[in-house]
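tool=predict chain=A
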Amino acid sequence: RPLPLQHQEAKRVGRTRKRSKLFQPQRISYEEDKLRKEFFGDHPWELARPRTVLEVDGKDAQRYDWSQASEPGRPLTGESVIQRQIHILNDKQNHPNISHAGAYDLARKEFYAKRLQEDVERQVAKEEAMATGAYFGKTMLQIGMELEDEVFERWKQWATKKASEQEQQRASMYTGMGNESARQPEESSETRASLANLEGLIPPIEAQGKEVDGGIPAGQ
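tool=predict ok
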């Protein structure tokens, strides 16, 4: 039954007002944000490298010479590519009419060359130290491979155990069917023995109907 008008809820007519953005903080963006997103999207493992974030007054980057990818006292990181790219874009004298992609490629090539140089220097220093009797422990890659081998061996043992259990279950199913079929000859032999005993009590069919001494047929 429909409710009377005085008990019905009044329908609200009008639009729902959206919250005002007057009291929301403004979005803070820098020129480097887009460049960082592009570079670290292409090189995600650069974020895994340890970095020193300690600064003196927060203006250390302003004292660096970004006309080159690296300089003494400044570590080579992904931030070097970003600042070097900005410097190339702003240097209209040496790089006129250079595009965003061109500046990015130029900064990346310089970064790759410096990083390769650092790797070669570390490898040469290690070989020189080993030649003089130094001993280095296992690398992170070797430790990771050993841990992976241990996990694989544990899984191999578990898989072998499970496979043997399944084989035993399948074998027990067929063995049970064989036992049932093996019991049938034993039952038939017992039946034959009981029938043989009964045959000893029942006269042969040839003797039935014949007369014996005294004129009485056998079986009467």
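The chain has four helices and no strands. The CA atoms of residues 8 and 105 lie 69 Å apart.
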